[in-house]
Structures are given as C-alpha cells and as structure tokens.
Amino acid sequence: MMSPQANHADNNNDAKKLKLEKTGATKPSRVIHIRNIPNEVTEAEIIHLGIPFGRVTNVLVLKGKNQAFLEMADETAASTMVQYFTTCVAQLRGRAVYVQFSNHRELKTDQTHSNANASAQAALQAAQALSGSTPNEVQGGPNTVLRVIVEHMVYPVTLDVLHQLFSRFGKVLKIVTFTKNNSFQALIQYPDVVTAQSAKLSLDGQNIYNSCCTLRIEYSKLSNLNVKYNNDKSRDYTNPGLPTGDAGMEMGSMGALGPLGLGMAGLGAGAAGVLASPFAAMHGLGSPLTGPYGNSAVGAAAAGMPLAGFSLPGAANALGAAGLRLTGQPGGSCVLLVSNLNEEMVTPDALFTLFGVYGDVQRVKILYNKKDSALIQMAEPHQANLAMTHMDKLRMFGKQIRVMPSKHLNVQLPKEGQPDAGLTKDYTTSPLHRFKKPGSKNYQNIYPPSATLHLSNIPPSVSEEEITEAFAKNGFQVKGFKFFPKDRKMALIQLSSMDEAVSALIKMHNYQLSEQNHLRVSFSKSNI
Fold this sequence. Notes:
The protein is built from 13 helices and 25 strands. The strands form six sheets. A seven-stranded mixed beta sheet has the order 11-7-8-6-10-9-12. It has a five-stranded antiparallel beta sheet with strand order 2-3-1-5-4, sandwiched between helices.
C-alpha cells in the first residue's frame, strides 16, 4: 500500500499533466472541468453529477486544488451536461461548483500507482453498472421522484418543512406525504433527474433537527405523482387550483412503492441537524430555511449555520423573528410556570388536558399559596417549548394566562402529611397521553388554539345531533359542525370564540360517546 504522501504526489503529477485550467474552454470536449469542489468530495460524487447525461468513462479529483475532471463517453453527453449547468447551479455538499469544457480531448490518468485511482475505478464501475441498465430496469434508478423516509421523528416534520428543505436544490413540482410501516414518508417530484440527484446526494443521511429526524432517500419506482388534492398531506405546486379534499394519490401508485430495503444507519449522538430547532419551522412561525437562495447554493454558502456539509442562511434571524430563543432548544427545562390563571375554575385535570395538546404532561402543581399560578412538567423540553409557543397569552376561563420556562427541573410531589388539597397530581401513567409513541402521528396534527375543534374517535352509531347536543348540554354554543367526507370517525366543530373552544376542549376531551368510544379533541387548523 502506498503512503498518503505518495498518493498526493501522484495526484500532483496528474495535475501537472493537465496544467490546471483557470479559464473555461469554449470548444466542446468530452472532458469536463469542475471547479470549487469541497475538499472532502469523493470520486463517486463527481461521477454522480455526470450520470444523468450519459456514460462516464473516467474521473480525476484534485483535492488539494479543489478541482476535478470528468470524462464522458462522447461529446454530446458532455455538451448536454455543460449546457444544463449554465442554467442551473451545480452543487456538491451544498457548495456551488462550476462546470465547463476542459481544454483536453481525453483524460489520461496513471491507473497503476494511485490509491485514489483504485477508488475512482470502483466508483466508475458502479456508475457504469448503473447507467448500463436497460430501460425496463430504470425504475428505482436515477429518477425525478425521490422517496423520503424520516427516521427517529422526535419532532413533527410537515409538508411545508420538506418543501422548503428540498427547494434548496431546485423547483419542487409535487409532494405526497403518508405513513407506512409506522414511519413518516414522502414522495417528492422534481422537473429533472439532475436536481433530484443533487437533493439525494446532499440530504440523504442528514438530520433535519439535531440528533433526530434523519432523512433516508432513495429513488422512487414512480416516474410521476398523481396528486388529487392540495392540503397538508399532498401538494401539486404546478396546479394551485386543486381542491383541498382528503390528501391522496391513486392507490395503484402507493402499491407500487414496494419494500424499503434500506439499511437503517445508527444515529450518531449529537449529530448536527439541518435546522436549529423545530419550533420556528412549525405552524406558521417561519422557518430557518426560508432564506434568499432560490435554486442557488451561492447564498447558502455565504451565511448561516454550517451543517454537515452545507449551511443555511437566515436561520438565527428567522428564529429571532419568531420570538424564540436558541438557548435551551431543544435542551432546557421540561417545567413551565403558568400564571394569571382563573383560580376559581382551574384544576390540575384542566391544565393536564389543555397542555396535553402539545405534549405529554407528567405532573401538575397548582401553587398552594398562590392559586392563580401552576407548575406543569412535560415529558420533554421540546414539548414544553411547543406549549409555551402556542399558549402564552391565551385566554383560559376568561383570563389571559402567561406561560414561561420555570427554573425547576421537575415538579415535586407533596410529602406525606403535607397539606396539598389535591392541588398536585401525577399523570405519568395516564392513558390519555397523545405522544407516547416516538414519531407519533399526533405530531403531524398540532395546531395553534382556534375557535374550531377537531374531533376524532367518533363511533358510526353517533349522529351529528348527538354530538352537538352533548356540547350544548355542557354549556357550549355550537356555530357549525361537519363530518369528514371520507372518514366519519372525524369531524370539525366550530364554537362561538377561541375562549369557548379552549373550555370545550378541556371539558369534552375524553367525553364518553359510547361504551367503547371516548371523544378525542384537539385544535383544528381550518374553519368550517
């Protein structure tokens, strides 16, 4: 085996032979010169840029010079590639790279000495096997549709977050999201294979948020997505006039997805994420990804946070604009201090139910000497942040409550014999927690408080009249009601005000509708 120094010397010899080119050649050649490549880029990544345009026959990476040469089988393929990258910025690991014709007619590299050449040859063989497949085998190979699986989904990942993330690489045409085998997945369609490949190469294996929400990306077997509805589950950006009915695509397409066949890579502790925290990216709070880069990586390289090979501009600004502190996210305390409560009406159960919309409440303590204040312990710090984001200054039982982080790390249960009057309750083993399962689907349905409530777990035997009557009996004025057209287990109910909807959620969540069914209530994102 040769030493790294010898290896580097071989590279330098190749570089001398090629007389590093500073300016682009105007005359077409099947050899392509690529400048400004990141130091750690591999031969396989350089080859990946060329695969969509034709067969790649040789590659040379000059890491010390941040340059590479790619030889295509013919000038036509090379011309197509250079022409394409004059209108669209090529990217490697988030950095803009520059593609031009080389002055050389062919790429002659010493294939006997260099270790780098051994890896180059292996990458070339893999690429040639890939591009040499017959048309019938192309499904699952380079394609305009990517299949994205989100692993370790601790925080919610919405369609809009995916759109902002994948739009970094080019125009996203369509997205369909769904849950399969208990994992959140998405199909994302680009206008061309090159953009899809660029996104796959840059994002596969990245974490959306620190140490979680890992993206696993493969090519879909579908070449086109048939999107019927524009809503939070599916979107056709080329056809904004679609109805908002239930998200979906033809079942035939879903059936064609086939088994994953993906190795689940272990998640490195503390692995950097593409976003600093989920809170700015969720529920209309603005996202770190909404930076001024469009389809180009140039802006991305200039500012923002360096993340696993690429950076995002404007992240800190977006978080700041959303009124969110970077410190303590997603670390920090699980305990919230809630003040200005209506002490005549508030109970630990009421706080458990309301705050339970945004996380799993473990303990509640209404302060014995200050009954308009309470400590609420959530299961995880990000749930406490989520609750604080949505409920600070919310009106509850006629008073505007304040929600802020507490200095306490947990809520203490009263010692035996200590006066408490039922003001402290432990909910650790409650069956009503909404987010017990990691990556729970309930994370997809967290919305800010509103006058419209989302009802679920409605048995077929229960009618609209019975539900609205149950709300009326408990003192709530129903302004509207609508079953979901394709799923009668769910409905929307509109109350006269947000204040009343908060009270209705507290009172009617877990309301018994039949022997087996208890009503599930959360805030809705839409009105009736």
